Amino acid sequence: MKHTKATLVPLTADAREQFILDNQWSFKYGALEEFGERDDHIDGDGEIIYSVYIKDANTPTDEGLYIGDTLEQVSSIYGTDRTENGNELVYTAGKTLLVIIVENDTVTSIEFRADI
């Protein structure tokens, strides 16, 4: 297998919008292939991705939080202005919720969720 070096660069604003639309289509297409067609609204306007989970311990949030980090690291990165419900920590930024699950002082799940 030949290895190719790639350079990642930030998306421009217009490229970001297209990236989001392409990802939304990709998720819908994957679900269509996996589960079959339930209706014919796959191209419906106004659809959004409701939530995104980080499941890979090698993928951080933009601020640098990883699955496997400690509760202390969560507080250091995001602060303590949050809602707590059991082991669920919820940070709110506009219409976006950052939901972090902490079990035994360790981050086990990170989710970005639309607050709709």
Q: What is the structural class?
A: alpha+beta
Principal-axis shape equals globular
Uncertain stretches of 5 or more adjacent residues: none
CA-to-CA gap between the ends?
45 Å
Biggest β-sheet: count, sense, barrel? 5 strands, antiparallel
Number of strands: 5
What string gives the helices and strands in order?
HEHEEEE
Characterization of this structure:
With 116 residues, the protein is of the alpha+beta class. The protein has helices spanning 13-35, 71-78; strands spanning 51-54, 83-85, 88-93, 96-103, 106-114. It is built from 2 helices and 5 strands; from the N terminus they run H-E-H-E-E-E-E. A 5-stranded antiparallel β-sheet has the order 1-5-4-3-2, covered by helices on one side. A hairpin with a 2-residue loop joins strand 3 (88-93) and strand 4.
Write the layout of secondary structure elements.
Layout: H1 13-35, E1 51-54, H2 71-78, E2 83-85, E3 88-93, E4 96-103, E5 106-114
Antiparallel strand pairs: 1-5, 2-3, 3-4, 4-5
Summary of the model, kept short:
This protein is an alpha+beta fold.
Task: Name the descriptors.
116 residues; alpha+beta; 2 domains; 5-stranded antiparallel sheet; 2 helices; globular
